[in-house]
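Holo prediction. Input below; ligand is adenosine-5'-diphosphate.
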Amino acid sequence: MGIRHYFRQFKKRTVQNRLTIIISLVIFVLLVGLVNFRLSMRVMSGTRAYVGGEGLWSKAQKEAVFKLVRYTNSGDESDYQEFLKYTEVQLGDKQARLEMDKPRFDRNIVREGFIKGGNHPDDVRDLIFLYRGFRDVSYMRTAVEAWTEGDKEIENLLYVGEQIHELVSTPPMPDNPAIRQARAAELASLVEQVYEIDERLTILEDKFSATLNEGARGIAWTLLWINIGITALLGLLSLVVGVMVSRHLVRLDKLKTDFVSLASHQLRTPLTAINWSSESLLAEKSGKLTQAQKRYIEALASAGQRMANLISDLLRVSSIEMKTYELNVEEVNLRSVLDGVVKDQQKEIKQKKINLDLTVDARVPMVQTDEQILREVLENLLSNSIKYTPEDGRIDIQIQTMRTYALIRVSDTGIGIPKSQQSQIFSKLFRADNAQRHNSAGTGLGLYIAKALVKMLNGNIWFDSVEDKGTNFYVKLPLYSEHYSKRKGSKNG
Ligand code: ADP
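Structure of the complex:
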Protein backbone atom coordinates (compact mmCIF):
# COMPACT_ATOMS: atom_id res chain seq x y z
CA MET A 1 0.00 0.00 0.00
CA GLY A 2 1.73 3.11 -1.16
CA ILE A 3 0.98 6.77 -0.91
CA ARG A 4 -1.36 6.44 -3.92
CA HIS A 5 -3.60 4.08 -2.02
CA TYR A 6 -3.97 6.60 0.81
CA PHE A 7 -4.53 9.37 -1.69
CA ARG A 8 -7.36 7.38 -3.34
CA GLN A 9 -8.92 6.64 0.04
CA PHE A 10 -8.63 10.31 0.90
CA LYS A 11 -10.39 11.38 -2.30
CA LYS A 12 -13.30 9.06 -1.53
CA ARG A 13 -14.13 10.96 1.67
CA THR A 14 -16.63 13.81 1.89
CA VAL A 15 -15.38 17.38 1.53
CA GLN A 16 -16.03 18.09 5.23
CA ASN A 17 -14.12 14.97 6.12
CA ARG A 18 -11.19 15.89 3.91
CA LEU A 19 -11.12 19.43 5.24
CA THR A 20 -11.16 18.12 8.82
CA ILE A 21 -8.19 15.87 8.03
CA ILE A 22 -6.21 18.65 6.37
CA ILE A 23 -7.02 21.19 9.05
CA SER A 24 -5.99 18.67 11.73
CA LEU A 25 -2.76 18.20 9.80
CA VAL A 26 -2.24 21.95 9.68
CA ILE A 27 -2.80 22.15 13.43
CA PHE A 28 -0.42 19.23 14.00
CA VAL A 29 2.30 20.80 11.86
CA LEU A 30 1.73 24.12 13.65
CA LEU A 31 2.15 22.38 17.00
CA VAL A 32 5.32 20.66 15.79
CA GLY A 33 6.50 24.09 14.66
CA LEU A 34 5.76 25.59 18.06
CA VAL A 35 7.50 22.76 19.90
CA ASN A 36 10.44 23.08 17.53
CA PHE A 37 10.55 26.80 18.17
CA ARG A 38 10.44 26.35 21.94
CA LEU A 39 13.09 23.65 21.74
CA SER A 40 15.30 25.86 19.57
CA MET A 41 15.03 28.68 22.07
CA ARG A 42 16.00 26.44 24.95
CA VAL A 43 18.87 24.78 23.11
CA MET A 44 20.25 28.15 22.05
CA SER A 45 19.79 29.64 25.48
CA GLY A 46 21.39 26.56 27.14
CA THR A 47 24.34 26.70 24.75
CA ARG A 48 24.81 30.39 25.42
CA ALA A 49 24.69 29.74 29.18
CA TYR A 50 27.36 27.02 28.90
CA VAL A 51 29.62 29.26 26.82
CA GLY A 52 29.16 32.01 29.45
CA GLY A 53 29.71 29.54 32.30
CA GLU A 54 32.90 28.34 30.66
CA GLY A 55 34.17 31.93 30.57
CA LEU A 56 33.68 32.24 34.32
CA TRP A 57 35.23 28.84 34.87
CA SER A 58 38.41 29.72 32.92
CA LYS A 59 38.69 33.14 34.48
CA ALA A 60 38.42 31.69 38.00
CA GLN A 61 40.93 28.98 37.10
CA LYS A 62 43.48 31.56 35.90
CA GLU A 63 42.95 33.62 39.04
CA ALA A 64 43.37 30.51 41.20
CA VAL A 65 46.69 29.69 39.50
CA PHE A 66 47.81 33.29 39.89
CA LYS A 67 46.96 33.34 43.62
CA LEU A 68 48.68 30.01 44.20
CA VAL A 69 51.88 31.08 42.48
CA ARG A 70 51.78 34.36 44.37
CA TYR A 71 51.36 32.43 47.58
CA THR A 72 54.58 30.50 46.91
CA ASN A 73 56.43 33.84 46.89
CA SER A 74 54.54 35.76 49.53
CA GLY A 75 53.75 32.98 51.97
CA ASP A 76 50.70 35.08 52.80
CA GLU A 77 47.87 32.80 54.00
CA SER A 78 45.25 35.10 52.50
CA ASP A 79 46.64 34.36 49.00
CA TYR A 80 46.15 30.67 49.62
CA GLN A 81 42.62 31.25 50.87
CA GLU A 82 41.86 33.22 47.75
CA PHE A 83 43.24 30.37 45.67
CA LEU A 84 40.79 28.05 47.42
CA LYS A 85 37.98 30.53 46.95
CA TYR A 86 38.53 30.70 43.19
CA THR A 87 38.52 26.92 42.83
CA GLU A 88 35.03 26.88 44.35
CA VAL A 89 33.73 27.95 40.93
CA GLN A 90 35.01 24.71 39.33
CA LEU A 91 33.92 22.67 42.31
CA GLY A 92 30.43 24.13 42.10
CA ASP A 93 30.11 23.28 38.40
CA LYS A 94 31.49 19.83 39.11
CA GLN A 95 28.87 19.29 41.84
CA ALA A 96 26.18 20.15 39.27
CA ARG A 97 27.67 17.87 36.63
CA LEU A 98 28.01 14.86 38.94
CA GLU A 99 24.45 15.32 40.18
CA MET A 100 23.08 15.63 36.64
CA ASP A 101 24.79 12.37 35.71
CA LYS A 102 22.60 10.50 38.19
CA PRO A 103 19.48 8.89 36.71
CA ARG A 104 17.38 10.58 39.42
CA PHE A 105 18.99 13.86 40.25
CA ASP A 106 18.24 16.53 42.80
CA ARG A 107 17.55 19.85 41.11
CA ASN A 108 18.47 21.79 44.23
CA ILE A 109 21.93 20.30 44.38
CA VAL A 110 22.46 21.05 40.69
CA ARG A 111 21.18 24.55 41.14
CA GLU A 112 23.39 25.20 44.14
CA GLY A 113 26.39 23.90 42.19
CA PHE A 114 25.75 26.05 39.12
CA ILE A 115 25.21 29.16 41.24
CA LYS A 116 28.49 28.48 43.02
CA GLY A 117 29.95 28.28 39.51
CA GLY A 118 28.83 31.87 39.02
CA ASN A 119 25.97 31.04 36.61
CA HIS A 120 22.81 33.13 36.61
CA PRO A 121 19.93 31.41 38.47
CA ASP A 122 17.61 31.97 35.47
CA ASP A 123 19.97 29.99 33.23
CA VAL A 124 19.98 26.91 35.45
CA ARG A 125 16.85 25.40 33.87
CA ASP A 126 18.30 25.55 30.36
CA LEU A 127 21.72 24.36 31.55
CA ILE A 128 20.06 21.26 33.00
CA PHE A 129 17.83 20.82 29.94
CA LEU A 130 20.75 20.86 27.49
CA TYR A 131 22.92 18.57 29.63
CA ARG A 132 20.23 15.98 30.30
CA GLY A 133 18.77 16.09 26.80
CA PHE A 134 21.97 16.19 24.78
CA ARG A 135 24.71 14.78 27.04
CA ASP A 136 25.20 11.85 24.69
CA VAL A 137 24.81 13.82 21.48
CA SER A 138 27.91 14.58 19.36
CA TYR A 139 29.17 18.00 20.31
CA MET A 140 27.76 17.98 23.83
CA ARG A 141 29.50 14.67 24.51
CA THR A 142 32.87 16.09 23.45
CA ALA A 143 32.30 19.18 25.59
CA VAL A 144 31.35 17.09 28.64
CA GLU A 145 34.49 14.98 28.16
CA ALA A 146 36.61 18.11 28.18
CA TRP A 147 34.77 19.35 31.26
CA THR A 148 35.32 16.02 33.12
CA GLU A 149 39.01 16.09 32.24
CA GLY A 150 39.19 19.68 33.37
CA ASP A 151 37.73 18.71 36.74
CA LYS A 152 40.41 16.06 37.12
CA GLU A 153 43.04 18.68 36.45
CA ILE A 154 41.43 20.92 39.06
CA GLU A 155 41.70 18.04 41.54
CA ASN A 156 45.40 17.84 40.64
CA LEU A 157 45.73 21.56 41.10
CA LEU A 158 44.13 21.38 44.54
CA TYR A 159 46.39 18.54 45.46
CA VAL A 160 49.49 20.43 44.33
CA GLY A 161 48.09 23.51 46.12
CA GLU A 162 47.77 21.53 49.31
CA GLN A 163 51.39 20.39 49.04
CA ILE A 164 52.53 23.96 48.43
CA HIS A 165 50.49 25.13 51.40
CA GLU A 166 52.03 22.50 53.65
CA LEU A 167 55.52 23.39 52.50
CA VAL A 168 55.08 27.15 52.76
CA SER A 169 53.24 27.11 56.06
CA THR A 170 55.82 24.91 57.83
CA PRO A 171 58.44 27.23 59.26
CA PRO A 172 61.90 26.49 57.82
CA MET A 173 64.66 25.19 59.98
CA PRO A 174 66.73 28.30 60.58
CA ASP A 175 70.24 27.10 59.99
CA ASN A 176 70.10 24.18 57.73
CA PRO A 177 70.95 25.43 54.25
CA ALA A 178 70.70 21.94 52.76
CA ILE A 179 67.12 21.53 53.90
CA ARG A 180 66.29 25.07 52.84
CA GLN A 181 67.68 24.34 49.38
CA ALA A 182 65.78 21.06 49.10
CA ARG A 183 62.62 22.88 50.12
CA ALA A 184 63.20 25.57 47.51
CA ALA A 185 63.74 22.92 44.85
CA GLU A 186 60.54 21.10 45.85
CA LEU A 187 58.61 24.33 45.75
CA ALA A 188 60.01 25.11 42.32
CA SER A 189 58.97 21.68 41.09
CA LEU A 190 55.47 22.16 42.52
CA VAL A 191 55.16 25.55 40.81
CA GLU A 192 56.30 23.87 37.61
CA GLN A 193 53.46 21.35 38.04
CA VAL A 194 51.01 24.19 38.58
CA TYR A 195 52.05 25.72 35.27
CA GLU A 196 51.74 22.40 33.50
CA ILE A 197 48.26 21.88 34.90
CA ASP A 198 47.39 25.42 33.84
CA GLU A 199 48.56 24.73 30.31
CA ARG A 200 46.54 21.53 30.05
CA LEU A 201 43.53 23.35 31.44
CA THR A 202 43.89 26.13 28.90
CA ILE A 203 43.77 23.55 26.10
CA LEU A 204 40.70 21.88 27.62
CA GLU A 205 38.93 25.20 28.10
CA ASP A 206 39.54 26.14 24.46
CA LYS A 207 38.29 22.75 23.36
CA PHE A 208 35.16 23.11 25.49
CA SER A 209 34.13 26.48 24.14
CA ALA A 210 35.13 25.71 20.55
CA THR A 211 33.03 22.53 20.60
CA LEU A 212 30.05 24.30 22.08
CA ASN A 213 30.26 27.12 19.55
CA GLU A 214 30.53 24.70 16.68
CA GLY A 215 27.59 22.74 18.07
CA ALA A 216 25.54 25.90 18.39
CA ARG A 217 26.21 26.76 14.76
CA GLY A 218 25.26 23.23 13.67
CA ILE A 219 22.08 23.34 15.71
CA ALA A 220 21.16 26.76 14.34
CA TRP A 221 21.42 25.40 10.78
CA THR A 222 19.45 22.26 11.56
CA LEU A 223 16.71 24.26 13.23
CA LEU A 224 16.63 26.68 10.34
CA TRP A 225 16.07 23.82 7.88
CA ILE A 226 13.40 22.31 10.09
CA ASN A 227 11.67 25.69 10.22
CA ILE A 228 11.91 26.08 6.45
CA GLY A 229 10.44 22.59 6.06
CA ILE A 230 7.58 23.34 8.42
CA THR A 231 6.81 26.66 6.74
CA ALA A 232 6.83 25.01 3.30
CA LEU A 233 4.55 22.25 4.54
CA LEU A 234 2.17 24.76 6.06
CA GLY A 235 2.14 26.74 2.83
CA LEU A 236 1.38 23.59 0.86
CA LEU A 237 -1.41 22.52 3.18
CA SER A 238 -2.96 26.00 3.08
CA LEU A 239 -2.84 25.86 -0.70
CA VAL A 240 -4.62 22.51 -0.69
CA VAL A 241 -7.27 23.88 1.68
CA GLY A 242 -7.71 26.96 -0.52
CA VAL A 243 -8.09 24.92 -3.72
CA MET A 244 -10.50 22.50 -2.05
CA VAL A 245 -12.67 25.25 -0.63
CA SER A 246 -12.80 27.20 -3.87
CA ARG A 247 -13.63 24.07 -5.91
CA HIS A 248 -16.32 23.21 -3.42
CA LEU A 249 -17.77 26.71 -3.61
CA VAL A 250 -17.85 26.56 -7.40
CA ARG A 251 -19.61 23.20 -7.20
CA LEU A 252 -22.11 24.54 -4.65
CA ASP A 253 -22.76 27.58 -6.80
CA LYS A 254 -23.45 25.36 -9.79
CA LEU A 255 -25.74 23.13 -7.73
CA LYS A 256 -27.65 26.19 -6.58
CA THR A 257 -28.01 27.53 -10.12
CA ASP A 258 -29.08 24.10 -11.38
CA PHE A 259 -31.61 23.84 -8.59
CA VAL A 260 -33.08 27.30 -9.25
CA SER A 261 -33.30 26.48 -12.93
CA LEU A 262 -35.00 23.11 -12.34
CA ALA A 263 -37.42 24.48 -9.74
CA SER A 264 -38.40 27.39 -11.98
CA HIS A 265 -39.07 25.07 -14.92
CA GLN A 266 -41.22 22.87 -12.72
CA LEU A 267 -43.19 25.86 -11.39
CA ARG A 268 -43.95 27.09 -14.83
CA THR A 269 -46.35 24.31 -15.83
CA PRO A 270 -48.86 24.64 -12.96
CA LEU A 271 -48.61 28.42 -13.17
CA THR A 272 -49.49 28.37 -16.84
CA ALA A 273 -52.64 26.44 -15.94
CA ILE A 274 -53.52 28.95 -13.21
CA ASN A 275 -52.96 31.95 -15.48
CA TRP A 276 -54.80 30.40 -18.38
CA SER A 277 -57.78 29.54 -16.17
CA SER A 278 -57.99 32.97 -14.57
CA GLU A 279 -57.78 34.63 -17.98
CA SER A 280 -60.58 32.37 -19.29
CA LEU A 281 -62.72 33.18 -16.29
CA LEU A 282 -62.09 36.90 -16.75
CA ALA A 283 -63.04 36.60 -20.41
CA GLU A 284 -66.31 35.19 -19.07
CA LYS A 285 -66.01 32.15 -21.29
CA SER A 286 -67.80 30.10 -18.69
CA GLY A 287 -70.51 32.56 -17.81
CA LYS A 288 -70.94 36.05 -16.43
CA LEU A 289 -69.06 37.02 -13.27
CA THR A 290 -70.32 39.15 -10.42
CA GLN A 291 -68.30 42.30 -9.57
CA ALA A 292 -66.86 40.61 -6.48
CA GLN A 293 -65.88 37.47 -8.43
CA LYS A 294 -64.23 39.65 -11.04
CA ARG A 295 -62.16 41.46 -8.37
CA TYR A 296 -60.98 38.18 -6.86
CA ILE A 297 -60.03 36.70 -10.16
CA GLU A 298 -58.28 39.87 -11.24
CA ALA A 299 -56.20 39.71 -8.09
CA LEU A 300 -55.46 36.07 -8.92
CA ALA A 301 -54.47 36.93 -12.48
CA SER A 302 -52.21 39.78 -11.42
CA ALA A 303 -50.48 37.63 -8.78
CA GLY A 304 -50.07 34.89 -11.38
CA GLN A 305 -48.55 37.36 -13.81
CA ARG A 306 -46.09 38.59 -11.17
CA MET A 307 -45.13 35.02 -10.43
CA ALA A 308 -44.62 34.28 -14.13
CA ASN A 309 -42.35 37.34 -14.35
CA LEU A 310 -40.38 36.20 -11.35
CA ILE A 311 -39.94 32.72 -12.81
CA SER A 312 -38.79 34.06 -16.12
CA ASP A 313 -36.30 36.36 -14.31
CA LEU A 314 -34.97 33.41 -12.31
CA LEU A 315 -34.53 31.37 -15.46
CA ARG A 316 -32.72 34.27 -17.09
CA VAL A 317 -30.36 34.55 -14.14
CA SER A 318 -29.70 30.80 -14.25
CA SER A 319 -28.92 30.80 -17.93
CA ILE A 320 -26.65 33.83 -17.51
CA GLU A 321 -24.81 32.15 -14.68
CA MET A 322 -24.61 28.81 -16.47
CA LYS A 323 -23.47 30.68 -19.58
CA THR A 324 -25.95 28.82 -21.77
CA TYR A 325 -26.57 31.77 -24.05
CA GLU A 326 -25.73 31.87 -27.69
CA LEU A 327 -25.80 35.15 -29.52
CA ASN A 328 -27.90 35.36 -32.61
CA VAL A 329 -26.51 38.43 -34.34
CA GLU A 330 -28.39 39.91 -37.25
CA GLU A 331 -29.17 43.27 -38.81
CA VAL A 332 -31.61 44.90 -36.45
CA ASN A 333 -33.72 47.98 -36.94
CA LEU A 334 -33.40 49.85 -33.64
CA ARG A 335 -36.41 52.02 -34.26
CA SER A 336 -38.78 49.13 -34.87
CA VAL A 337 -37.47 47.23 -31.83
CA LEU A 338 -38.22 50.27 -29.69
CA ASP A 339 -41.66 50.73 -31.23
CA GLY A 340 -42.42 47.11 -30.39
CA VAL A 341 -41.25 47.51 -26.82
CA VAL A 342 -43.37 50.64 -26.31
CA LYS A 343 -46.37 49.00 -27.92
CA ASP A 344 -46.13 46.00 -25.61
CA GLN A 345 -46.32 48.28 -22.59
CA GLN A 346 -48.88 50.70 -23.98
CA LYS A 347 -51.54 49.44 -21.59
CA GLU A 348 -49.52 50.31 -18.47
CA ILE A 349 -48.46 53.67 -19.96
CA LYS A 350 -52.07 54.57 -20.55
CA GLN A 351 -53.19 53.34 -17.16
CA LYS A 352 -50.72 55.69 -15.45
CA LYS A 353 -51.44 58.51 -17.86
CA ILE A 354 -47.76 58.78 -18.66
CA ASN A 355 -46.62 61.11 -21.36
CA LEU A 356 -44.15 59.17 -23.49
CA ASP A 357 -41.90 60.72 -26.07
CA LEU A 358 -39.73 58.74 -28.47
CA THR A 359 -37.02 60.67 -30.34
CA VAL A 360 -34.98 58.78 -32.87
CA ASP A 361 -32.03 60.18 -34.81
CA ALA A 362 -33.08 60.37 -38.46
CA ARG A 363 -29.79 58.77 -39.53
CA VAL A 364 -30.13 55.75 -37.26
CA PRO A 365 -28.61 52.85 -39.20
CA MET A 366 -29.24 49.15 -38.89
CA VAL A 367 -27.41 47.64 -35.96
CA GLN A 368 -25.70 44.27 -35.96
CA THR A 369 -26.87 42.77 -32.71
CA ASP A 370 -29.05 40.14 -31.03
CA GLU A 371 -32.59 41.43 -31.31
CA GLN A 372 -34.13 39.36 -28.56
CA ILE A 373 -31.49 40.33 -26.02
CA LEU A 374 -31.73 43.99 -26.97
CA ARG A 375 -35.50 43.86 -26.69
CA GLU A 376 -35.28 42.31 -23.25
CA VAL A 377 -32.94 45.05 -22.01
CA LEU A 378 -35.13 47.85 -23.34
CA GLU A 379 -38.30 46.22 -22.01
CA ASN A 380 -36.73 46.15 -18.60
CA LEU A 381 -35.67 49.79 -18.67
CA LEU A 382 -39.05 50.99 -19.92
CA SER A 383 -41.03 48.87 -17.47
CA ASN A 384 -38.89 50.23 -14.60
CA SER A 385 -39.54 53.78 -15.76
CA ILE A 386 -43.27 53.13 -15.88
CA LYS A 387 -43.22 51.34 -12.52
CA TYR A 388 -41.26 54.06 -10.72
CA THR A 389 -42.94 57.10 -12.29
CA PRO A 390 -46.09 58.38 -10.62
CA GLU A 391 -49.22 59.12 -12.66
CA ASP A 392 -49.04 61.99 -15.17
CA GLY A 393 -45.27 61.72 -15.29
CA ARG A 394 -43.05 61.81 -18.37
CA ILE A 395 -40.84 59.27 -20.07
CA ASP A 396 -38.46 60.22 -22.88
CA ILE A 397 -36.67 57.71 -25.04
CA GLN A 398 -33.90 58.91 -27.32
CA ILE A 399 -31.61 57.19 -29.76
CA GLN A 400 -28.48 58.90 -31.01
CA THR A 401 -25.95 57.32 -33.30
CA MET A 402 -22.24 57.99 -33.44
CA ARG A 403 -19.72 56.53 -35.87
CA THR A 404 -19.43 53.10 -34.26
CA TYR A 405 -22.15 52.94 -31.67
CA ALA A 406 -25.69 53.88 -30.77
CA LEU A 407 -26.65 55.53 -27.51
CA ILE A 408 -30.12 54.82 -26.14
CA ARG A 409 -31.42 56.92 -23.28
CA VAL A 410 -34.53 56.17 -21.24
CA SER A 411 -35.41 59.12 -18.95
CA ASP A 412 -38.25 59.49 -16.52
CA THR A 413 -39.59 61.98 -14.02
CA GLY A 414 -40.06 59.28 -11.41
CA ILE A 415 -39.02 58.68 -7.82
CA GLY A 416 -35.29 58.54 -8.65
CA ILE A 417 -32.66 56.50 -6.85
CA PRO A 418 -31.26 57.63 -3.48
CA LYS A 419 -27.62 58.67 -3.83
CA SER A 420 -26.47 56.36 -1.05
CA GLN A 421 -27.88 53.27 -2.80
CA GLN A 422 -26.86 54.05 -6.37
CA SER A 423 -23.73 51.88 -6.21
CA GLN A 424 -25.85 48.77 -5.51
CA ILE A 425 -28.43 49.20 -8.21
CA PHE A 426 -27.03 46.50 -10.55
CA SER A 427 -26.55 43.95 -7.76
CA LYS A 428 -28.62 40.80 -7.78
CA LEU A 429 -31.88 41.10 -5.75
CA PHE A 430 -31.22 44.71 -4.75
CA ARG A 431 -34.14 47.14 -4.51
CA ALA A 432 -33.79 50.70 -3.26
CA ASP A 433 -35.80 51.69 -0.17
CA ASN A 434 -37.95 54.25 -1.98
CA ALA A 435 -38.72 51.72 -4.74
CA GLN A 436 -39.95 49.20 -2.20
CA ARG A 437 -42.22 51.82 -0.63
CA HIS A 438 -43.50 52.99 -4.00
CA ASN A 439 -44.18 49.60 -5.57
CA SER A 440 -44.10 46.34 -3.72
CA ALA A 441 -43.93 44.28 -6.91
CA GLY A 442 -40.35 43.78 -8.01
CA THR A 443 -37.61 41.18 -7.79
CA GLY A 444 -34.43 43.22 -7.92
CA LEU A 445 -33.27 40.96 -10.75
CA GLY A 446 -34.14 43.09 -13.80
CA LEU A 447 -31.11 45.38 -13.84
CA TYR A 448 -28.74 42.57 -12.86
CA ILE A 449 -29.96 40.68 -15.92
CA ALA A 450 -29.92 43.80 -18.11
CA LYS A 451 -26.31 44.52 -17.23
CA ALA A 452 -25.24 40.94 -18.00
CA LEU A 453 -27.10 41.01 -21.32
CA VAL A 454 -25.65 44.37 -22.38
CA LYS A 455 -22.20 43.00 -21.57
CA MET A 456 -22.90 40.09 -23.93
CA LEU A 457 -23.62 42.63 -26.65
CA ASN A 458 -20.27 44.27 -25.85
CA GLY A 459 -22.16 47.34 -24.77
CA ASN A 460 -22.34 49.39 -21.64
CA ILE A 461 -25.15 50.41 -19.31
CA TRP A 462 -25.17 53.15 -16.67
CA PHE A 463 -27.45 55.76 -15.18
CA ASP A 464 -27.73 59.05 -13.39
CA SER A 465 -30.53 59.85 -11.03
CA VAL A 466 -31.78 62.40 -8.51
CA GLU A 467 -34.17 61.20 -5.85
CA ASP A 468 -37.73 62.59 -6.32
CA LYS A 469 -36.71 64.15 -9.64
CA GLY A 470 -36.07 61.34 -12.06
CA THR A 471 -33.67 58.91 -13.63
CA ASN A 472 -31.78 58.55 -16.91
CA PHE A 473 -30.62 55.11 -18.00
CA TYR A 474 -28.13 54.85 -20.86
CA VAL A 475 -27.25 51.91 -23.05
CA LYS A 476 -24.31 52.21 -25.39
CA LEU A 477 -24.33 49.61 -28.12
CA PRO A 478 -21.75 48.84 -30.84
CA LEU A 479 -23.18 49.13 -34.32
CA TYR A 480 -21.08 46.30 -35.71
CA SER A 481 -20.72 42.83 -34.35
CA GLU A 482 -17.08 41.94 -35.13
CA HIS A 483 -16.06 42.13 -31.48
CA TYR A 484 -18.76 39.87 -30.09
CA SER A 485 -17.49 36.97 -28.05
CA LYS A 486 -18.95 33.61 -28.99
CA ARG A 487 -20.87 31.85 -26.26
CA LYS A 488 -21.48 28.14 -25.95
CA GLY A 489 -24.79 26.33 -25.51
CA SER A 490 -28.25 27.26 -26.63
CA LYS A 491 -30.46 30.15 -25.87
CA ASN A 492 -32.98 28.81 -23.39
CA GLY A 493 -35.03 29.63 -20.27
P1 ADP B 1 -37.11 45.71 -9.62
O1 ADP B 1 -37.75 44.42 -9.89
O2 ADP B 1 -37.10 46.06 -8.18
O3 ADP B 1 -37.57 46.81 -10.47
P2 ADP B 1 -34.60 46.01 -11.03
O4 ADP B 1 -33.39 45.16 -11.00
O5 ADP B 1 -35.24 46.23 -12.34
O6 ADP B 1 -35.57 45.42 -9.95
O7 ADP B 1 -34.18 47.41 -10.44
C1 ADP B 1 -33.43 47.46 -9.27
C2 ADP B 1 -33.75 48.70 -8.48
O8 ADP B 1 -33.28 49.84 -9.19
C3 ADP B 1 -35.20 48.96 -8.27
O9 ADP B 1 -35.72 48.24 -7.19
C4 ADP B 1 -35.20 50.46 -8.01
O10 ADP B 1 -34.80 50.71 -6.69
C5 ADP B 1 -34.10 50.96 -8.92
N1 ADP B 1 -34.61 51.47 -10.21
C6 ADP B 1 -34.48 50.88 -11.41
N2 ADP B 1 -35.01 51.65 -12.39
C7 ADP B 1 -35.48 52.76 -11.77
C8 ADP B 1 -36.14 53.95 -12.23
N3 ADP B 1 -36.41 54.14 -13.51
N4 ADP B 1 -36.46 54.89 -11.31
C9 ADP B 1 -36.19 54.71 -9.99
N5 ADP B 1 -35.57 53.60 -9.52
C10 ADP B 1 -35.22 52.63 -10.39
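Residues 392 and 405 are 33 Å apart (CA to CA). That is the main takeaway for now.
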